[in-house]
Amino acid sequence: MHVKMLGCGDAYDPKRTNSSLLIREGDFELLIDCGPTVPQALFANAMTAEDISCIYISHCHPDHCLGLTTLLNYMKSFKRSKPLSIFRQASQHQALYRLMEFASWPEKGLGFELYWKDSENLTEIGPWRAETTPSSHSVPNRSLQLTGQDATVFYSGDGLLSPQGERFAAQADLAFIECEYMTAANGHGSWADVKDLQKKAGSRWVLYHIDDASRLAVADAITGHAEFSLGEDGREFDLAGVMA
Ligand SMILES: [Zn+2]
Ligand SMILES: [Zn+2]
C-alpha cells in the first residue's frame, strides 16, 4: 500500500494544493477528494488518463470536489477506455453529476463507463476492506477507513470525528486528520480534539487541512509528540509490512 499526499491544504490555502490522497496497491489507484487545485498536482505526477481506478469524494464542499470537472474532461480528451467508479454520498449526487456533465459539455458522455456508488454502506474499494462514518461538518462528510494486507489507513475528510471515526483512527497505522484550528471549533478538527485521541502503537498521525494562520502554532504544538507530523504536498508513505 503506497500513499501519496497530493495536497494538504484547506479551501483557501494560498500555497498548498487542496487536501487529497492518492493510494495505490498493485495496479489499483484510488484518488481521495478532488478540489480545484488537485488536477494540476495529478498532471505534475505524470498521470495518464487510465491511471486512476476509483475516486472517493468525502463531501461536496468545493475544495473537495470542484476538480472533478477538469479531471473527467482530461480523461475524456485523452480517450480513457477503462471504467471509472466514483464513491459519493447519495444525497450529494446531484451536485457531482453537474460537475460530470460540465466535463463533456456541450456534448453528452465521457466516452468511458462511469459508475456512481454510494459511500454510506460500502464494504470494499478495490483490493481493500473499506468503511465510512459521518463526521460533524457543515456539509455531511464521511470519514474513510481502508484496510489492506499490510496496513490500515484512515482519512478523516473535514469535520469533528464521530465516536466511530475515533475508533477507526485508533485502529489505523496511518491516520490523516483534519486539523483546521488549535482550539476546539464547531464542525472542524483541531489540535485540542486530536491530541489525546487513542492511537495504535507505532501509528503515524498526519495533520492536514490546517488554516494557514494556525499552521505555525500546530507545528509548534506537535513538537514532542512523535506520532504526529504535518501534512505536506507530495509527501509519500510506504506501508508495506507495517503489520508484520
Ligand atoms: Zn475542506
Ligand atoms: Zn468541508
UniProtKB/TrEMBL annotation:
<dbReference type="InterPro" id="IPR036866">
    <property type="entry name" value="RibonucZ/Hydroxyglut_hydro"/>
</dbReference>
<dbReference type="Pfam" id="PF23023">
    <property type="entry name" value="Anti-Pycsar_Apyc1"/>
</dbReference>
<protein>
    <submittedName>
        <fullName>Metallo-hydrolase YhfI</fullName>
    </submittedName>
</protein>
